[in-house]
């Protein structure tokens, strides 16, 4: 499930859980207590992927990035912060996500998107390239529109969701 590319193998904190059916290739770093669930494909080949702490990437999600070019010398890596929940079958491509974010099931987040802290992206949403999502808001639709500020329960839920997955991955680690 862990493959090297050009001599670089994913670097995982010892507390991470990676399902054995997930495929992680190349320049990928994953922080403490994060988890990667069945059938995730993450390819850190022509740029890098960095995932923070207590973040979960759920089943069937696809993570990739964009190479550097003359016009775009850094390309677009994929950077995901702490306490982020990436729902089932999400596509994250060359974007930057802050902390305490829920990316709803089946959402697509494209190149050079910046997502602020404490954001929910509704299931099935499309975030087009180069868009910035403001901290503290719900975004839904295709293309996404800002729907409303998150309420206190939703803001609290973002951390609860991440914590639930830390507990779940600990249970899975005990089984393996
Ligand atoms: C986005 C979400 C949190 C909104 O929940 P909610 O509390 O029902 O939101 P609201 O009732 O305030 O809805 C605001 C508007 O957005 C619409 N809406 C809600 N979810 C939507 C979605 N995913 N896509 C498009 N529109 C959506 C609502 O119909 C409503 O429209 P209206 O004002 O025209 O009636 C929820 O629908 C969602 O998508 N959750 C994702 C869950 C998930 O994928 N979890 C990860 C796996 S564990």
From TrEMBL:
InterPro entries in UniProt: LbH_gamma_CA-like, Transf_Hexapept/Carb_Anhydrase, Trimer_LpxA-like_sf
Identification of the protein by name: Gamma carbonic anhydrase family protein
Lineage: Bacteria, Pseudomonadati, Pseudomonadota, Gammaproteobacteria, Alteromonadales
């Amino acid at each position: 499930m862990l493959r090297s590319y050009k001599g670089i193998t994913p670097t995982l904190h010892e507390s991470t859980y990676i399902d054995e059916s997930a495929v992680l290739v190349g320049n990928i770093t994953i922080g403490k207590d994060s988890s990667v669930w069945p059938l995730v494909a993450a390819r850190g080949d022509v740029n890098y992927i960095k995932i923070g702490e207590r973040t979960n990437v759920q089943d069937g999600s696809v993570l990739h990035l964009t190479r550097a070019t003359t016009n775009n010398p850094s390309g677009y890596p994929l950077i995901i912060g702490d306490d982020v929940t990436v729902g089932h079958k999400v596509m994250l491509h060359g974007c930057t996500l802050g902390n305490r974010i829920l990316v709803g099931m089946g959402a697509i987040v494209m190149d050079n998107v910046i997502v602020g802290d404490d954001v929910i992206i509704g299931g099935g949403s499309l975030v087009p390239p180069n868009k910035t999502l403001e901290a503290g808001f719900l975004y839904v639709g295709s293309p996404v529109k800002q729907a409303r500020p998150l309420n206190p329960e939703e803001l609290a839920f973002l951390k609860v969701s991440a914590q639930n997955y830390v507990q779940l991955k600990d249970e899975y680690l005990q089984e393996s």
